[in-house]
Amino acid sequence: MAKRKTNGGAEDSAGSILSTVAGPSVPPHPTRLEPPATGTSTETVASPKVGDGQPAIGENALNRPLDRVRVDDSARELTTNQAVPVADNQNSLKAGLRGPTLMEDFILREKITHFDHERIPERVVHARGSAAHGYFESYEDLGDLTRAAPFTAAGKRTPVFVRFSTVAGERGSADTVRDVRGFAVKFYTDKGNWDLVGNNMPVFFIQDAMKFPDLIHAVKPEPHNGMPQAASAHDTFWDFASLSPEIAHMLLWHTSDRAIPRSYRMMQGFGVHTFRLVNAQGVSVFCKFHWSPMAGTHSLVWDEAARITGADPDFHRRDLWEAIDSGQFPEWELGLQIFTEDQVAKFPFDILDPTKIVPEEMVAVRTVGKMVLNRNPDNFFAETEQVAFCAAHVVPGVDFSDDPLLQGRLHSYIDTQISRLGGANFHEIPINTPVAQMHNNQRDGMHRQAINRGRVNYEPNSLAGGCPFQAGARGFVSFPEPQHGSKVRGKPELFADHYSQARLFWISQSLTEQRHIIAAFRFELTRVQTPAVRQRVLALLANIDEVLVASVAEGLGMSVPPPLPPATDRPPYDYPPSPGLSLFARPGSMGIRTRRVALLVGANTDLAQARSLYASLLDDGAVPRLIGERIGPVVEISLETAPSVLWDGVIVPDAMPAVGDVTVFEFLKLQYRHGKPLLALGNGAELLKAARIPHTLPHGVPDPGVIVAAAVDAMEALASVKAVLAQHRVYARETDPPRV
Ligand code: HDE
To answer: Which family does the similarity line name (predicted)?
Structure first.
């Protein structure tokens, strides 16, 4: 993969800021970089950190305020935390060379004490994650819909920091487990921070915040033995699920390929809840947020995902990092579904119910901007680990709906940060600090950074001229939604339709995707040890679709039980299929960029040919590598360290030895099993033959992804490989169990 010079590209004004501020000579105590000389004292000038809202292409305005705290150790002396130069970092201070260590050794004590406290609690959910910087650019002025800062002008750019995550696993767990993915975006707008804390699936497991701790307790490792890690395939999760029919719709998303994305760059994101947008006149519409990846929506297959867990537990983290590092910046378009109170009254579902989508056929998705991630963090802990998202962080122009799940979230996030990040001042940790200016009378607390000046820390005041003063209509004004009704614990009636949209999802899937859902239920429920739990899940599925329940039951060796009694007398709503719910609806426009291709080489390989194939793949933005038994002058990675599942396709150039070993066969078989393109040139074809790779699909027609060609036709054959790579994989090859 071609390396860029800096960790973020041309914008990396970090370099230029460094040279203007620090100068070419080394200053005496340069552990901190000063803020850029742009802008004066921040007291009177509005948001100098944001600039004019139109940073140059590729620039992250956020880099500048963060540069204030970035530390560069090059050409510096080692010091203590008090900046005292350390003479000897190898030996503690002792009473004689063989004597006891002296209490006096403040250098040793400081070092060990800091180390002892290096860890903070991990997130109670979404502990495992990866993040990047970038920007959001609005395509248009959305002033008619909202006064939210990112949308006030066409072309306006707002810096963002985005964290992707799994939900159930612990901080060190593997990336490619079956799970929902978090998709949390922090917009550093010029009117304060807005966090759109979403997931890669548009619905959720439960309808009310009251059930969240139960759901999470059920899915996390079981409390008596701490197993299993990062997996829903165990009794407690399915026990809870089987007793919570509102989960039906989400179970289908969870067993679908959405739960095993190929890359964070290749998954959608959703705000899940209905939100409100409010314009400057105070007029409000409802809104659902959608992120759509320009790279298309692509997934792993389960056998592959499970093997990647061992081969590279950091698979998604590495993929995101390497893509950004090589200048292949991931992009998503933001889409809005906008609807009014009048439309809501006619929907066959309740828009406050987070287990329901608004089908695109009912309300089209309007594309309003794009997000580009163009800079990796400098420090995982300082940025990715300490970033604190909160569903309650909104800016003027965005408001909440009464979705009872969302309402519970509004409390939880700030609350959890207080224990995770050690106190009420976590907003002062640089990655969480707004780019817009903060002024209020909140004071003190653990680890306070701001040095608030003056004697006034209350309001109203006359001694400070009434400052900081209320913003009035320029500030956040809650939408004055009329409220009625008695205090009650319960749910609206439409919430009880648990199955109509589950069925909608099912009938909108391709046959391939349906087969994967069936196989996922079989896998998960086979791991469940309690037969009654399996039985109840089948009874729930019986309300969704006959083929689905019969196929899952067959896989479990069980008969189909009577359906679980529905929770409402209303007949189910008969939705027509919604093709956009299939992953295949969004192939993307990336071609083969960032696709990883293995060129298998041996002692006899025609290296000239291998190199020209390599160069051609590189030209198209793919990531080719020469793979063989042992690394050396030719081979870049060995088969044992980069097994088959880490590659999107394989090429055997001409004159590869006619017979391979078990490792090579295994490599080719798994490429085949996982639907990836295989190209064998000249003599290389013998290897495919020896590995018993079929050339035809199960129903007899030629497999477009198994390509055998004469050595002279190498480039033409490579074009066919590229075409299959761009389509992701040959799903038509799949059988259950696999043929090879
Ligand atoms: Fe979260 N969620 N959540 N959640 N959530 C957290 O906040 C919570 C829900 C989501 O990368 C926690 O800072 C409750 C839905 C993401 O740092 C915590 C409920 C959606 C992230 C919390 C929900 C999400 C979190 C844990 C139900 C999709 C990771 C650490 C009432 C729309 C953000 C933290 C990151 C994290 C609570 C449901 C998304 C405990 C109580 C629905 C992406 O506050």
So the answer is: Belongs to the catalase family. HPII subfamily.
Angstrom distance (rounded) from CA 399 to CA 135: 22
374 has catalytic annotation: no
The answer to whether the bond into 737 is cis (omega within 30° of 0) is yes
* 199 carries an active-site annotation: yes
Taking the model in full, what pTM does it have?
0.92
Of the candidate CATH numbers 2.60.120.260, 4.10.91.20, 2.40.50.180, 3.40.50.880, the domain formed by 78-115 belongs to 4.10.91.20
Q: Which residue has the higher pLDDT, 658 or 338?
A: 338
Of 165, 197, 272, the one to substitute when testing ligand 1's pocket (max ligand atoms within 8 A of C-beta) is 197
Q: Which residue positions form the known binding site for heme?
A: 123, 163, 212, 409, 413, 420
Which class in CATH covers the domain with range 129-432? Answer: mainly beta
Q: What are the tens digits of pLDDT across the range 38-92?
A: 332 222 332 333 334 444 444 556 666 787 888 889 899 999 999 999 999 999 9
Element (H, E) at 346: helix 341-346
The rounded distance, in Å, linking the Cα atoms of 576 and 261 is 26
CA gap 316, 308 in Å, rounded: 10
Contact 221, 480 (CB under 8 A): no
Phi, psi of 254 (to 5 degrees): -70, -30
Write the single-letter amino acid at 261.
P
What is the amino acid identity at position 125? V
Q: Which of 123, 128, 161 to mutate to test the pocket of ligand 1 (most atoms within 8 A of CB)?
A: 123
- pLDDT tens by residue, 124-175: 999 999 999 999 999 999 999 999 999 999 989 999 999 999 999 999 999 9
For domain 596-733, the CATH architecture is 3-Layer(aba) Sandwich (3.40)
Q: Does domain 501-585 have CATH number 1.20.1370.20?
A: yes
DSSP 487-533: ------GGGG--SHHHHHHHHTS-HHHHHHHHHHHHHHHHH---HHH
Sign of the dihedral defined by the CA atoms of residues 457, 458, 461, 465, in that order? positive
Domain residue limits, the chain: 78-115, 129-432, 501-585, 596-733
